Amino acid sequence: MQTRLLIYPLAICAVFIAWSRILFEADHLGYFVDEVLDNTYAIYNFFTIGNYSSPRFPEPFDSRITSGIWTTWPAGLVWVFHGNLLTQRPLLALWNFAQLWLLIVLFLRLYKFSLVKATAYSALVWLLILRIPYWHGFLMNLGELPGILLLGFSLYCIRMNRPFLAFLIIGITVWCCKFIYILVLPFWLFAYLYSKNYLNFNGIRKSFLLLFAFMVPLFIWQLIAALRFDLNTALNWYPKMLAFLIHGPSGLDPNSSKVTGLVSRLAHLEWSHYGILEKTKFLILLVGPIFIYFILQKLTLKLQITKTENAFSLAVILSIFFYMIWWFLIHPDMYARHIQPALYLGLGFYLFWGFRVFKPGFVIFLFM
Q1: Among 61, 105, 191, 279, which is least packed, fewest CB within 10 Å?
Q2: How far is 146 from 110, CA to CA, in rounded Å?
Q3: What is the Cα–Cα distance from 340 to 323, expressed in whole angstroms?
């Protein structure tokens, strides 16, 4: 009863605090080159002339524009109707909140939560997201937050035994939202095959079907490019994407100059600009879930952890771990926004297991 009485005033406060902060940042943030000259310009071009390109990346359907149409379409609508950044940024926040609200409602309805109560929880989680390092990235038309929300929908589809739809959504995440989420694909695929006892010959056939679903959004995007220009434009996307992946900001180019050695990287790259509080947030969200996962292994029987929950928890942990390896040891700049997929995965891990373990007092757990 105390939790029920507490959640609604907390949710109202969360809505007020979150949207006050969003509107303040939308007005005060300076423009970001990726925001204006790449992502927003690309979607405006797509809506007006049918070409996803920008002044910095002018090739037809340029693969170097790293936030896709799922992320950027609200910004395109704003500028088609002669808007501005102060209109675009709150609309992007509203688009992301709508996805978060729907995701939380879908999951909590499985546990017989009312729509009103699930909506209250979504307001609390929304406020938590605004405490993630570089949280304002979604205001600047970047795809990390909408990408993780799509991954959440893929997990819901797994829960509802709709694997084809789940991997179709993962395809939208990677090809139409943020390519950086490609890293989770092998772990999601293995987790599904393991949880359904498909680690056999039948699993090979199932894998091909799921990978085909994953590729469908890219095939549709390439079909649009071919119809707008020609087949060569669509086919050239692949080698250009590979070249950008290697020679772009990934740090994979062996000839690129970058700071080496973990100590030197922490001392000279973007990490060094953060205060103790922000660094603590990084470590809690990146390292904390790994320790909690091993604790959960000792409590499998007591908590009645299912095979699917265990498999996808491991998939999340492995994804976080490899993002960490890449960001701490390879990424040329250690930009905070490029580790956000792991930060969001960590937050999602805390939220899910917080709900599973502290269900009656989950609202208290959110603000521990």
Answers
A1: 279
A2: 22
A3: 9
